[in-house]
Amino acid sequence: MNSPVSPPSPYSSAIGKSNVETHTLSVLVDNEPGVLARVVGLFSGRGYNIESLTVAEVAHGEHLSRITIVTSGTPEAIEQIGHQLDRLVPVHTVTDLTLAGRAIERELALVKVRGKGENRVEALRLADAFRAKVIDATTESFVLELTGATRKIDDFVELMRGIGLVEVARTGIAAIRRGPEPT
Amino acid sequence: MSETMTGAEMIIRALQDQGVEHIFGYPGGAVLPIYDAIFQQDKVKHILVRHEQGAVHAAEGYARSTGKVGCVLVTSGPGATNAVTGLTDALLDSIPVIVFTGQVPTYLIGSDAFQECDTVGITRHCTKHNYLVKRIEDLPRVLHEAFYVAANGRPGPVVIDVPKDVQFAKGKYSRPTNAEHKTYHPKVDGDLAQIERAVDLMMKAKRPIFYTGGGVINAGPAASAALRELVRMTGFPITSTLMGLGAYPASDPQWLGMLGMHGTYEANNAMHDCDLMIAIGSRFDDRITGRLDAFSPGSKKIHIDIDPSSINKNVMVDLGIIGDCAHVLEDMVRLWRSGAHKADEKALAAWWKQIDQWRARKSLAFRPSKETIKPQHAVQRLYELTKNRDTYITTEVGQHQMWAAQHYHFEEPNRWMTSGGLGTMGYGLPAAIGVQLAHPKALVVDIAGEASILMNIQEMSTAVQHRLPVKIFILNNEYMGMVRQWQELLHGGRYSHSYSESLPDFVKLAEAYGAVGMRCSDPAELDAAIIKMIETPAPVIFDCVVDKAENCFPMIPSGKAHNEMILADMDDDIGSVIDSKGKMLV
């Protein structure tokens, strides 16, 4: 029999856990009370992973918020997550930015380092190399602000660990599609 | 056009404007203004239940037998938490229900006030959507939106939580409009190109089968009509889930009976060996598929569903069509008829020959007895004696439910109300009350077990008060029969806490409620007793004393495939059939 479409084998891919991917989903929602709880509850209730989640109002007049979620799972699980999100009544659109391709993802981090002498100078040199800004300083500490892709921030934090890292605060990922079209 | 009124009055007005005639409820402090508004009108009739869970199941029975939205009114705190089981039941079976809950006044929310609970928080996971209305200005929109959300797309339960000060507040009411919902736009028309591909696959199929579910019932009578036409035109065999019984007439020769864990041998084997499966409004639930990696291994699968998240959820399909079953089925009928579409008659004849061999196995057969009433026999006699009447059947959950599904045969949709997804014991009596209210002249029978019925027995008072002559037909084997059966199969016959100890005398119990009680334990007297029950113009509890040790067969044991069924006449040691992996499953 001729097949009009050729989906992956029904069993190998859905059941094996070897092909886990990480995707970024952009969810446009009505900014109403409880909407974040609905989205987060969906993930916990159905056993999906959240690796990063950001939410903020993006159009005040229309009460729209964008929730950006980084999740991981098999391609089938991620497709299912998209459908489950779309099913929530206050959700306008769900876009899988990883599938859509060419998305820009950025994170902001605040990094506190403490130290004296050569460590202090090295911290500033590295901050300069990563284009991080000093936004607070004392004679024995800096708070550095850094934006960039998750990997860049991971690298920076790792470097700081050796020269007096105190703590890190990160926003999680904000993501948007490249080019003129909306996400 | 807008009128000024209180929030409580708006709720009642919205019910009237939405065509609601009945609301099931139980009063309490946080809904007194709404009860006052009910008192001052007579268009919406209130049915007082005896427990809020009963109210939601009654609304489900009402909704499933009419296709309308069922409505419930309960108070805050315990009123809302008692409704949670009903809400979850309605969510899993996709039943349109709206539950109005009272809430403490807005200025007390969060203070742990008397009878306060976080109703929207608690019900978020067991509703399709829920609302907490904190401002009177939002109430009219929310009321009408709730009806839209409950009934459109894949139906489901909606909660509207209304604080008491909002019920007293005055505001402008607006009538329902047919404006589109801001964000919720379910897709009802299937993609035509996909439907053409489906029809093409059907034409080429050699061993096709239709596998239909509750979505066909939910899509209304037009869906059942189109399904019947399509099945007859193609000549394909058809099976259905528990939820889908009645969409296709059970008396038709193309009907294979129910499939799944307690489905027929022919339906399950046909599912396993088919080369094309056409799933319509069904969701590949674990009771249906059995062992997933051995589920219908050689078939192409077409799946039609209104909910995109149902497609590829449990089983990957080759062709998914998102749309309302009625619309898609009508398109399929039109396409099949218009083109040069013809099934592969020769292949189909061979397929039917194979199916007839499976049928000849007579998988629903059981050993008859002259001494004790066999539960299957009781359902068969009930069917024979009620089939020519205007009859609706509800059930509780357990062996009796499966025997009812196997041995009571449905010709029409909306005649069969059972808790499929959640498996809620205590569903059948309140559901029967809802059905009887919607169909006052019909015969409504709750096929029950002696354990399940006790879970919502208090609703007998509701039936008596509102003169709803429901018939409760208890298959009394003095066991939580399905638990006992699984203990026999899986746990070495150690019947831990599954014996129904200290049962009430059901005849006296019926009489205590002001209803009629009957008992029968002799197969020779069964017919006369059933006829007497049917002809009694009052609620009846019929205590049908049946064989205590009967198991429900055929059965796909946990962790096994469709072609590994246990049949009643197999002499296997059934305690050894299920392996350790299967024991982990429910």
Describe the structure.
The complex is a heterodimer of chains A (183) and B (586). Chain A is of the alpha+beta class. Chain A folds into 2 domains: 12-100, 2-Layer Sandwich (Alpha-Beta Plaits); 103-177, Alpha-Beta Plaits. Helices cover 31% and strands 38% of the residues of chain A. In chain A, the strands form 2 sheets. In chain A, strands 5, 6, 7, 8 and 9 form a 5-stranded antiparallel β-sheet that branches. In chain A, strand 6 and strand 7 (141-148) form a beta hairpin. Chain B has 586 residues and is α/β, with parallel strands linked by helices. Chain B is 37% helix and 17% strand. Chain B has 23 helices and 20 strands. Chain B is globular, with a radius of gyration of 24 Å. The chains are: A alpha+beta (183), B alpha/beta (586). Chain A binds chain B through residues 1-5, 7-11, 13-15, 30, 33-34, 37-38, 41, 45, 76, 79-80, 83-84, 86-92, and chain B through 120-121, 124-125, 128-129, 132, 149, 181-184, 197, 200-201, 204-206, 275-276, 292-293, 300-301, 307-309, 311-313, 315-319.
